[in-house]
Design goal:
With 111 residues, the chain is an alpha+beta fold. Helices cover 16% and strands 28% of the residues. It has one helix and seven strands. The strands form two sheets. A four-stranded antiparallel sheet has the order 4-5-6-7, with no helix packed on it. A three-stranded antiparallel sheet has the order 1-2-3, covered by helices on one side. The longest helix has 18 residues. It is elongated, with a radius of gyration of 20 Å. It holds the Pfam family Zn_ribbon_RPB9.
């Protein structure tokens, strides 16, 4: 629990949707305070995922050894077949995320 340094009221956690960071705000006065560590960690996770998608070649859709799914709808071209494989799991991330690549337009996303 955090308290306002100006009026000692309870601070409430809020999200800044533009910068995707957390901050604490007082309801009684205009005092605000950065939330610190936890949101920095969240930002790192987002960047790691984007990086993974960047290094995926679009020609993986021609790789016959990869699994295919007919139940993934591409939100760019609406095609329903995509190849998928497990994201290279680094020590930083414990989540087993799958990377999908649309076989029609090559759009990549994490599922
Ligand atoms: Zn206050
Ligand atoms: Zn597509």
């Amino acid at each position: 629990m955090r308290f306002c340094k100006e009026c000692n009221n309870i601070l409430h956690p809020k999200e800044n949707r533009t910068t995707r960071t957390l901050f604490y705000a007082c309801n009684r006065c205009a005092y605000r305070e950065e939330a610190g560590q936890s949101c920095v960690y969240e930002n790192n996770l987002v960047k790691t995922t984007e990086l993974k998608l960047d290094i995926v070649h679009e020609d993986v859709v021609n790789d016959p050894t990869l699994q295919r799914s007919k139940h993934q709808i591409c939100d760019r071209c609406n095609y329903s077949e995509a190849v998928f494989f497990q994201a290279d799991d680094s020590a930083k991330s414990s989540s087993l995320s799958l990377i999908f690549v649309c076989t029609h337009c090559g759009k990549k996303w994490v599922g």
